[in-house]
Amino acid sequence: MSVLDTPAWLERVGFRTLYRLADLTYALGVATPKRTVAGTYWSYEPTNPHGDDPGLAALDRIPNDATVLDVGAHVGEHAIPLAADTDRRVVAFEPNGESADRLVRNAARNGLAAGTDRRLDLRRAGLGDERGSLPFYRSTFSKCSAFDRDRATRWGARVDAVEEVPVFRLDDLVEGVVAAGVDVAADATPAGDPVTPPDAIKVDVEGRELAVLRGAEATIRAHRPLLVVEVHDGTAGDDRADALRSWIAERDYDVDERGDVWVCRG
Methyltransferase FkbM domain: which residues (predicted)? Predict the structure, then answer.
């Protein structure tokens, strides 16, 4: 192995160690307090990657009775601190079954019954710009699991399983939104009850950010929610990032880029 290969090798070892540690903390039931810009909560995760997240800080500034949609909720690192000790309603979308199960455990540790408690409503589905189903690649590094096989195999991970998961357009789910000339919220039963119009939408979906926003265009136009987007491949000149930036700007949103986190206000 050359010296030039060492950083990539160390990165792979670091991620492998991290995910094995997470498996252990969940198996043993070891929860620790996580201090964040939105308050302290308990989690079985061994690390606290979003403790000083600027997007989480922006979301926490919205009113305590607001509705927040967490698209790509993972294990609840945004959803739980935003819901805990407030009157907010957080609707969390997570297509990865393992991550969703861990979100439920973390929520329960904080006194939130995910899926039944009005403050934290878990939907085990993906969002995009078309309704149907897509193959979802379960990665051995759970955070890498994605609708894209290449992303599921980053940092030395491998695909552990492939499963078809339901995908909805957000415009098909939000109460009272009319998309393509048809009010379709009444047909949202497969993903649960119609969703309250959002005050904020957070998106972290491993490269499918633009598809999620396109599927929420009518909702965004009608309600002008705060948008917090974690951008993958977000460097200047990247085609995906440039297309995403243009789409958001064309809807009269100001984009405040904080590294990989974009805080967008209309």
Answer: 70-254
Residue 90 lies in domain: 49-265
Which pLDDT tens digits describe the chain residue by residue (266 residues)?
444 455 667 777 777 888 889 999 999 999 999 999 999 999 999 999 999 999 999 999 999 999 999 999 999 999 999 999 999 999 999 999 999 999 999 999 999 987 666 789 999 999 999 999 999 888 887 778 888 888 888 777 888 888 999 999 999 999 988 655 444 444 444 457 889 999 999 999 988 999 999 999 999 999 999 999 999 765 445 788 899 999 999 999 999 999 999 999 99
Does residue 39 belong to any structural domain of this protein? no
Assess if residue 36 is contained within a domain. no
Rounded distance between C-alpha atoms, residue 264 and residue 262, angstroms:
6
Provide CB contacts within 8 A for 198, sequence distance 6+: 67, 68, 69, 91, 174, 219, 223, 225
**Can you give the CATH number for the domain in which 81 is found?**
3.40.50.150
Residue 66 lies in a domain: yes
| The total number of structural domains that make up the chain | 1
